[in-house]
Amino acid sequence: MTNTGNTPPIWFITGASSGIGRELAVQALAAGEAVVAVARRTEALGELGEHERLLVVEADVRNEAAVAKAVEQGVARFGRIDIVANLAGYGLFGAVEEAADGQARAIFDTNVFGVLNVLRATLPVLRGQRSGRILQGSSYYGQTADPGVGLLAATKYAVEGLSDALAAEVAPLGIHVTLVEPGLTATPFLSNLDTATAIHADYDQTVRVLQQAIQALPTTAFSGVDRVAAGIRTAVADDNPPRRLALGIAGADSMRTALAARLAELDKWATVTNLVDAELSAHNG
Ligand SMILES: NC(=O)c1ccc[n+]([C@@H]2O[C@H](COP(=O)([O-])OP(=O)(O)OC[C@H]3O[C@@H](n4cnc5c(N)ncnc54)[C@H](OP(=O)(O)O)[C@@H]3O)[C@@H](O)[C@H]2O)c1
After folding, report:
1. How confident is the model over 96-142, as pLDDT tens digits?
2. Gap from CA of 263 to ligand 1 centroid (Å)
3. Which residue of 12, 41, 151, 189 sits with most ligand 1 atoms within 8 Å of its CB, as the best mutation to test the pocket?
4. How big is the CA angle at 229 (ends 167 and 84), to the nearest 5 degrees?
5. Which domain holds residue 25?
6. Degrees to nearest 5, angle at CA 238 with 237 and 241
7. CATH code of the domain in which 133 resides
8. Is 200 among the domain residues?
9. Atom 7, ligand 1: residue with shortest CA distance
10. Is residue 93 part of a domain?
């Protein structure tokens, strides 16, 4: 797939103890591939069973030294890393104004600075190989946002921006970057959410309404985690992996609506946009 020979790929997966990361580990092992599974709660990985192709490493992605050690151990065991799945992360629900400073900083520590720790530790390996694939855990909230998810979306937008730049930086080195953008997926994500204290009734009509709507969603509103992982596997195995991979119809529709509105607004305000350079174009003309 991504390595030079025909040997099965070696995965380095964060967030491997639960949800999408865990399912990716399960599917990779079932396909005869090797996995470095990284999580804080490594006991949850015991259920994956004993595999000579599985290395479980305990690391908090916020701890740069621990992440570097996990990469070192992975390379010592398997000799290389072909696919980095940067999936550790969690959500924060609450109005932008209501999220406490500590909550806002904490979610960036895991969802953004944790991702950066993994990139800094794995990129030297991938660059050395002149090959590799990086899966960045984003969301449909990496391209749009609803009331109550401002801080979560802020971390995903940050990951999207840095990944666009990174993709261009590492493309000449044989490394592909794919932003994984799931819609609502049936994982423990919602039960692992941090929640801001509701302070202002002014946000009942937006934030609380959306929170109640999410809590009332039927299970059918969530994509199956097995299919989400299977979709990720299809994309990462492609010769030309996508920059962005939407997973699930509802999330993709939300992104489509947001992108169309953004383009329409760019066009609607084009006169004002272009007037800024009117003198320049008159001069050049
Ligand atoms: N489920 C959805 O609806 C959905 C939708 C869009 C995007 N996503 C994204 O998909 C990714 C995976 O989410 P999920 O749905 O699989 O959620 P999940 O089941 O809650 O899994 C999250 C994983 O992140 C790990 N994690 C959290 N903080 C960590 C830290 N500081 N250090 C190391 N590991 C940490 C957790 O492991 P430990 O607690 O053991 O460390 C867990 O394995 C996230 O980036 C999420 O934003 C999910």
Report:
1. 999 999 999 999 999 999 999 999 999 999 999 999 999 999 999 99
2. 31
3. 189
4. 40
5. 10-247
6. 105
7. 3.40.50.720
8. yes
9. 139
10. yes
